[in-house]
Amino acid sequence: AAAPLIKGCNIHGTQLCQLEVRNHAQPRVEGNQIKESEAMGLFIHSQARGTFIDNDIFDNRDPLAQVLVASGASPVLQKNRIRDGSSGGIQFHGEGTEGWLDGNTIQGHKLAQVEVSSGALPRISRNSVTNGSTVGMYIHDPHTAPKVSHNHIHSHEDTQVIISHGAFPAFDHNLVEAGAGTGLLVTQSGHGIVE
């Protein structure tokens, strides 16, 4: 599998995705600015892996999210700043999609800051998820079962966390506070373990 190092770059201003990682690739992507695309900032899919650390990802204008992890990808994303997008922050989508979202700052999005859907199973830990226009974290669909622990989710203009449509997360030791709406909403056959 391809395993390049992408470090200290300024990747900006494209009409399509700024950085796409696919087909079992395993890059190390560190200390880059990924910004100002008309589409996604970062798209990781098709069994790609890799480590993404200390990147600043902002002002990408895809209607879905700034960062999308899908189609069986399983990356490690640590200490990144995912901020100020016109839609969602980061989405994990689809059965077989895993990965680890750890120690990131995710803030300032118009849609859900963190979304997990359609059977994805990531670990989500020690992130600061803050100051969104709508929802902090949205976990939905059958077989969607992320492990969500030790996150600080706060200061959203709508519900802080929604678990719905048959999702079954393990949600433990998270601090959910200071939102304008409901703190934790479980609805429409949402399940899970909340501690």
UniProtKB/TrEMBL annotation:
Q: What SUPFAM superfamilies does this protein map onto?
A: Pectin lyase-like
> What's the name of the protein?
Right handed beta helix domain-containing protein
Keywords, ordered alphabetically? Repeat
Q: Which residues form a coiled coil?
A: none
Q: What InterPro entries does the record point to?
A: Beta_helix (IPR039448), Pectin_lyas_fold (IPR012334), Pectin_lyase_fold/virulence (IPR011050), SCF-Subunits/Alg-Epimerases (IPR051550)
List the GO biological process terms.
ubiquitin-dependent protein catabolic process
Q: Domain Right handed beta helix: where?
A: 5-119
The UniProt record lists the keyword Iron: no
